[in-house]
Design a protein that fits this description.
About 10% of the residues lie in helices and about 35% in strands. The chain is mainly beta.
C-alpha cells in the first residue's frame, strides 16, 4: 500500500472516530410562570421547567445540541447560548431582534447547533427584556470522550450560579425605569444556585449547601448570572485555583477571591484541605461607580466537610470592600491563557480592521410634556462612539442581512469617536454637550476571516463604571488593560501577544481601557453589548455583520423553517 493511500486511510479513520464520539443531546424547555417563596414573599417568576436556576445542560465538545423551547409565558422570549461560537448556526444565537424575532406566547422554536472548538463552563439565558433574571442555567462542555482536562481530574464538578433577585416582576421594574428615564429599582437580594442565604429575612433554610470530603478536590463552575452587578466571591479559609474563564483554559492562578462580571464564567479548583467544619461561601457586589446606589447585601452558602457536627458554626470569609477596584483589577489582569492547551488559539498578528471605541453612559432628551428622573431632568442613555444602539422592530438584523432587505440598519458605525476629548476626566460630567448621543441602528461590516483589533475606552460621561462587554459568536484575546486614557505610545508596549487570556466578556476597567483582538471567521450578525442589562436596554451596544466566506463551508445556511416571525 502506497504512502498516500495509507495517509488517506488514517485520515478517514480519524474522521470516523471523531464522528462516532459525537452525540446528539436533546432537551425540551417549557417556559412559564412559577410561584415560589423568597424573602418572606410569594413571587410569580418566569422559569424553565419549574426550576430556578433552569436545567443544567451537559455536552461534550463536538456534540450537537437541540433544545425545543415552548413559550408558555405571557412574554415574548428568546434564548441565548452565551459564549457558544455558533459556527454557521447564527440563526440559533438567540438575541431578540438581532438573530431572530422573539418566540411569542403560545409558540415554540427549536435551537439546533454543534459545539466545536471549546470546552468548559458556559451558560444559557433569556435575551429579551430582563427575563434572564430568572430564565438561565449552566451549559457544561466536557472534553471529547477519551480526552482529559489539562489539570488533575476533580472528585466532583459543581455549578455555582450567582443570581440577582427582586421582590417584584422584573419586567415591570425595567419598564418603570425606561418610562421615567431614571435608574430602575434596585434588587432585593443575590443568590447562589437560586438560594439567597441566611443573611436575608425568612431565608435561614434557603441556603445552598456543598458537602465535601477531606482530601478531595472539586471543580467549581462559577457563573455570574446577575443582571446588573459584578461580584466578589470567596470561601472562608480556602484558596481557589483558576483553571479556566469563559470556557477557555488558563494557566493555574491561585487567589483567595474571585471577581466575576455578569456574563462571565470562572472555573476553579477547590481543595478540601482545611479542618473538618463548616465554611461560608459568600458573594457581594463590586460596585465601581462612585456615588451610584446599589444593592449592598451579601448572599452566602456553606461548604460542609463530611463529619462536621450539625451544631458547628460556619466561618465567614472577609470579603473585599464594595469599591476595591485594585483587588478587582489585580484578579482580572493577572490571568493568562494556557498556551498550547486544548483549543488554544494563537494571537493573530496582522490586523485588518482597527477601531477605537468609547464606551459609557449618556442622556436622552426628555420628551415634551413629560417629567424625567435622569440627571439634569433627562432620560438615562448609553452609547458606543457616540451612537446609542436601537434594535430594529420589523425584522431581525440577521434576516435583513440574509435577505438583503434595506432600511433596517446602516453599516456606518464609526471606527473612532466623532469627537476627541479627555475621556476619563471626571470634569467632563459638567459638559452636557457630550451627553446626548443619537439613537440609531449602526453596525460594522467585516470581511470574512478579517482580524479586528478594538481599543475599548471607558468614559466618565455621567459616571465612570466598569462595563462587562460581551461579543456574541467569538472569543477574543485580551492584549492589555489599564486605567486612564489609552496612550498608544506607552500602552502598546504592554500588549501580551504570547499567552493572553481568552474571553467572550471583559470587564472594561472603570475609568480605563482594554485592547482586544479577534478573527471574524463566522458569517452572520453578532451583537456586542454591555452585560449590565440596565445599560443594554438604553443603548450600550453595537453589532458586527460578517460577510460570507468564499466556499459553501464558510457560507451561512438559510434560516430554519420554524424561525419565529415578527
Amino acid at each position: 500500500m502506497g504512502r498516500p493511500v495509507i495517509l488517506l486511510v488514517c485520515a478517514l479513520a480519524l474522521l470516523v472516530a471523531s464522528t462516532a464520539s459525537a452525540a446528539i443531546v436533546e432537551h425540551t424547555f417549557y417556559v412559564q410562570n412559577l410561584t415560589i417563596n423568597r424573602l418572606c414573599n410569594r413571587q410569580v417568576i418566569t422559569a424553565v421547567n419549574g426550576s430556578l436556576p433552569g436545567p443544567r445542560i451537559r455536552v461534550r465538545e463536538g456534540d450537537t445540541l437541540i433544545v425545543h423551547v415552548y413559550n408558555k409565558s405571557p412574554y415574548n422570549l428568546s434564548v441565548h447560548w452565551h459564549g457558544v461560537f455558533q459556527k454557521l448556526s447564527c440563526w440559533a444565537d438567540g438575541p431578540n431582534m438581532i438573530t431572530q424575532c422573539p418566540i411569542s406566547p403560545g409558540n415554540k422554536y427549536t435551537y439546533k447547533f454543534r459545539i466545536t472548538g471549546q470546552e468548559g463552563t458556559l451558560w444559557w439565558h433569556a435575551h429579551v427584556s430582563w427575563l434572564r433574571a430568572t430564565v438561565y442555567g449552566a451549559l457544561v462542555i466536557r472534553p471529547k470522550s477519551g480526552h482529559s482536562y489539562p489539570f488533575p481530574m476533580p472528585h466532583r464538578e459543581v455549578p455555582i450560579l450567582l443570581g440577582e433577585w427582586w421582590n417584584a416582576n422584573v419586567i415591570d421594574v425595567e419598564n418603570q425605569g425606561l418610562a421615567t428615564g431614571g435608574a430602575p429599582n434596585l434588587s432585593d437580594a443575590y443568590t447562589i444556585n437560586g438560594w439567597p442565604g441566611d443573611l436575608y429575612p425568612c431565608s435561614q433554610n434557603q441556603m445552598y449547601k456543598l458537602k465535601v470530603e477531606t482530601g478531595k478536590t472539586y471543580l467549581l463552575r462559577i457563573v455570574n448570572a446577575a443582571l446588573n452587578v459584578q461580584l466578589f466571591y470567596k470561601i472562608a479559609n480556602h484558596k481557589l485555583t483558576v483553571v479556566a474563564v469563559d470556557a477557555s483554559y488558563t494557566k493555574p492562578y491561585v487567589s483567595d477571591v474571585i471577581v466575576i462580571a455578569p456574563g462571565q464564567t470562572v472555573d476553579v479548583l477547590l481543595a478540601a484541605n482545611q479542618h473538618v467544619g463548616s465554611y461560608y461561601m459568600a458573594a457581594r457586589p463590586y460596585a465601581s461607580a462612585a456615588g451610584v446606589a446599589f444593592d449592598n447585601t451579601t448572599t452566602r452558602g456553606v461548604v460542609v466537610y463530611d463529619g462536621t457536627p450539625s451544631s458547628a458554626t460556619p466561618l465567614m470569609p472577609a470579603l473585599p470592600a464594595f469599591n476595591d477596584t485594585p483587588k478587582a483589577h489585580k484578579f482580572s489582569s493577572n490571568l493568562t491563557g494556557l498556551k498550547g492547551g486544548p483549543h488554544w488559539v494563537q494571537v493573530p498578528r496582522n490586523v485588518d480592521h482597527k477601531t477605537f471605541v468609547t464606551v459609557g453612559l449618556g442622556l436622552e432628551p426628555c420628551p415634551a410634556n413629560m417629567t424625567c428622573q435622569g440627571p439634569v431632568g433627562a432620560k438615562l442613555s448609553a452609547s458606543m462612539n457616540n451612537h446609542s444602539f436601537v434594535p430594529p422592530r420589523r425584522l431581525s438584523l440577521l434576516q435583513a442581512f440574509f435577505l438583503h432587505v434595506g432600511g433596517v440598519y446602516t453599516t456606518d458605525f464609526p471606527a473612532k469617536p466623532p469627537i476627541k476629548f479627555d475621556y476619563t476626566n471626571a470634569i467632563i460630567s459638567n459638559n452636557t454637550a457630550l451627553f446626548f448621543a443619537p439613537k440609531a441602528t449602526k453596525v460594522t461590516k467585516l470581511k470574512f476571516n478579517s482580524t479586528v483589533e478594538m481599543i475599548l475606552q471607558n468614559t466618565a460621561i455621567v459616571k465612570a463604571e466598569n462595563h462587562p462587554m460581551h461579543i456574541h459568536g467569538f472569543n477574543f484575546h485580551v492584549l492589555a488593560q489599564g486605567f486612564g486614557n489609552y496612550n498608544p505610545a506607552t500602552d502598546r508596549k504592554k500588549f501580551n501577544l504570547i499567552d493572553p487570556q481568552i474571553r467572550n466578556t471583559i470587564g472594561l476597567p472603570v475609568g480605563g481601557w482594554a485592547v482586544i483582538r479577534f478573527t471574524a471567521n463566522n458569517p452572520g450578525v453578532w451583537i456586542m453589548h454591555c452585560h449590565l442589562d440596565v445599560h443594554l436596554s438604553v443603548g450600550l451596544a453595537t453589532a458586527f455583520v460578517v460577510e460570507n466566506g468564499p466556499t459553501p463551508a464558510t457560507t451561512l445556511p438559510p434560516p430554519p423553517a420554524d424561525l419565529p416571525k415578527c
